[in-house]
Specification:
2 copies of one chain form a homodimer. Chain A has 334 residues and is of the alpha/beta class. The first copy, chain A, contains 12 helices and 12 strands. Chain A folds into 3 domains: 44 residues, lambda repressor-like DNA-binding domains (434 Repressor (Amino-terminal Domain)), CATH 1.10.260; 131 residues, Response regulator (Rossmann fold, 3-Layer(aba) Sandwich), CATH 3.40.50.2300; 131 residues, Response regulator (Rossmann fold, 3-Layer(aba) Sandwich). The termini of chain A are far apart. Chain A binds a DNA duplex (16 and 16 nucleotides) through helix 2 and helix 4.
Amino acid sequence: MDICDIAKLAGVSSATVSRVINGMNNVKPSTADGVHRAIAEAKFYPNNNATTLKRGKSLTYGLIIPDITNPFFPEFIRNFEHIMVERNRDMLMATTAFHASRVQQSIRRMLIRRVDGVALLASEIETEPIEALIHNRVPLVSMDRRLTGPGLSDVLIDYSSGMDEAIKHLKKLKHRRIGYIGGSVGPTISDHRRSAFIEAMKNNGLKAELELIRPGNYRMQGGESAMAELLSVKPHSTAVLAANDLTAIGALRVTQNRSLTVPQDISIIGFDDIDLADILQPPLTTLRLSRSALATTFFKALEALQAEPHSSGRQYSAETKLVIRGSTAVARTQ
Amino acid sequence: MDICDIAKLAGVSSATVSRVINGMNNVKPSTADGVHRAIAEAKFYPNNNATTLKRGKSLTYGLIIPDITNPFFPEFIRNFEHIMVERNRDMLMATTAFHASRVQQSIRRMLIRRVDGVALLASEIETEPIEALIHNRVPLVSMDRRLTGPGLSDVLIDYSSGMDEAIKHLKKLKHRRIGYIGGSVGPTISDHRRSAFIEAMKNNGLKAELELIRPGNYRMQGGESAMAELLSVKPHSTAVLAANDLTAIGALRVTQNRSLTVPQDISIIGFDDIDLADILQPPLTTLRLSRSALATTFFKALEALQAEPHSSGRQYSAETKLVIRGSTAVARTQ
DNA sequence: GTGAAAGCGCTAACAA
DNA sequence: TTGTTAGCGCTTTCAC
């Protein structure tokens, strides 16, 4: 079944059918009516592969994320997909499970499908697949790589503002020794988060102790083991910041399993503010990174790059903001 | 950049390039080598739209889900995508936000992309888009519609076994008046769940009181309002089953906000066993529906239908199983 | 083992 | 306002 069949049914040419399908206004209404009827009768759906092949544009953006079971990402996806649907665009999603090889695989998928751009929210990035994108003139918008270039924009996560708020908040609560559980070792994005922590400590006249800085893996389990290590330091720190909420939840669990009470015995601050943060016991104090703002920014960045493929990319930025809930309190005097 | 360019670079014909790309074994190794080199040098990625157009098969399955922020679905998606990547297939995901119009839109997306099959986990289903799939010979595997036909399989969720376990568990804990918070009004899938509850009550010699059966909406907020209603019935039931974990969490929150303790004052049982269920306070007793088993079943069903497009679909089934945690306890004597 | 060429279903000049 | 037609990039038969 193709537009020629529809053309025969409607007694017109395939070009007219094409025009009707694409809503061009240079078709006589009565003719268009007939075509619409024929399409409906035949339950015809035009083959997008042919359209894309012909037009050289797929009206599709790719989205690559590390881990869909981290609630941050579904919340982002929902916003992103919503924008795409509204603009009559398609989304092609791939997850990487934190493996560089899966990033490569995902980018390959995007390239062979001829997406009009890629939003890359994963951090296990190797330069080779990125070069493939650039070389093939597929715009790329990355998250917090702090690197831009022709066809390459970036959305910086502005930790510093939020991180400063967080440390100020803790300092006011009399915390002095503050621990930090980071992301995976390797990705620069983890480094940015850690540096922002150290910087904020310094700016507030506190010393970031190396012994109290541990890597995690952005998952609960990583938060658990890192927190176990932090608790074995005697005396342990009175507060801990985590690189994301999942990590903070892991830390929370370990703490509670050891019969320590949060926030009385130890304060915990997360990062992201996933919906879940609010329903924990205690509800999590966290640095909020707005998913809808982020989705909007990524979309805008993609559109901008697409409109002018030869233009150089821009550095965008997304704010973080402290949300105070129940997991922080005055430091226990030791 | 196309295979003809590669052909020139490698000094062969485009047919040979195509053969090499597709790993056919009727190319002299040295020739294949040269082609591979040319492809790498040019960073060439074949245009999948052309391939699909030509072959008439996309090696892609569509996946339609209602709500990606319900953790059940990301957990499902991760398993499903993993299977797909392993088999060198592609996944095209769409969410419906519980709107029938979005289901229609999603199915249209799938049809114009010529997916080889659709896994439909949403329940806001209208017959029209489904007929479009059938008519265009695109296999469909639905969840718990309990309807099969040519090119149409279904995965039944076997509530009865788990629901029976749940009621037996509560009965042993001396609960007699048990409430139920269902899914959205309308979808048959909600009816199945509710019927299974009523049936299980009856089978265990308990009476399902209509007053204690309320609709929810598969989201936390729905669980909250339904639970508020249930608590206004005096005396309130001593236990409540929810149509999914999110609903149960909503119920849990309302209960705790009213200074009632779970499970001492009231027992709550969820459905799904999302990862989160285990980290709540108290950890949620729930009916487990395995995401990985479900993903495997959906994939198998799609492959079977695709292998024999003219064959009639099958009824598959997925088990549910009671997981006892901390949200159920002996009923308070009233 | 390799190449020539037809055609998958659509769009967009161009012509009428 | 409508039709004719040349491709978009690939696969695959058929011929060599």
